[in-house]
Amino acid sequence: MGAKEHDFAKTVWDTLSNTDINKFVFYKNGALPYLPWAAAWQILMSHFPLSNYEFGKIHYYSNQTCEVSVTVTCKNGAETLTRSMTQPVYDERYNSIINPTSAQINIAKMRCLAKCIAMFGLGINLYASTESGNLKHDEAFTGEYQKFIDELSYLETEDEVIAWYKNIRNIPNISKESIKNAITARNAKLAQLNNGFDNATTH
Length: 203
Hints:
The structure is a single chain. The protein is built from eight helices and six strands. The protein has helices spanning 3-17, 37-47, 102-118, 124-131, 137-140, 143-152, 158-169, 176-195; strands spanning 26-28, 32-34, 52-55, 59-60, 66-76, 79-88. Strands 3, 4, 5 and 6 form a four-stranded antiparallel β-sheet that branches. Helix content is 48%, strand content 16%. Helix 2 packs across helix 3 (102-118), helix 6 (143-152) packs parallel to helix 8 and helix 7 (158-169) runs antiparallel to helix 8. It is an alpha+beta fold.
């Protein structure tokens, strides 16, 4: 990579990684944060309007699962920066789907697009927090955790959420793991209220 290419790569990263995306973030199942592909593309184009993307061929495996791919090219005049990404076609529990439908493949493609844009810096912290162990996929789908999310879905103010948590905390003999799940659920709900996307749970 030449000096000019390095400078453009740094400009792209500094611009996108420092963009405030809080108002665009949604929460899957009330806990896992994500940036919708439409918002990711809108933000990218607002800074680098000559950018484009191209999906690759779908790669099928012997077990009838498959993987999609995309290449995004960020452009500013003659300067370009390209990143590629792959994405398995999975269900809501992150299990690969056997013989997926065209709709499921399309969802995977758009998820892949948002993920690839993150490689330029936009929303990369969302993936870092999800995969660091702070919000484990397995934990997000435990019965107890989902119960907390369901209870919190009916609360509409910060005071109600705080009162709910105090009640959970005062339950006799409640385990540390339950408290941890309750704290994570509470924080996710408060983030939804602050961002104004309380009803967003899918993508």
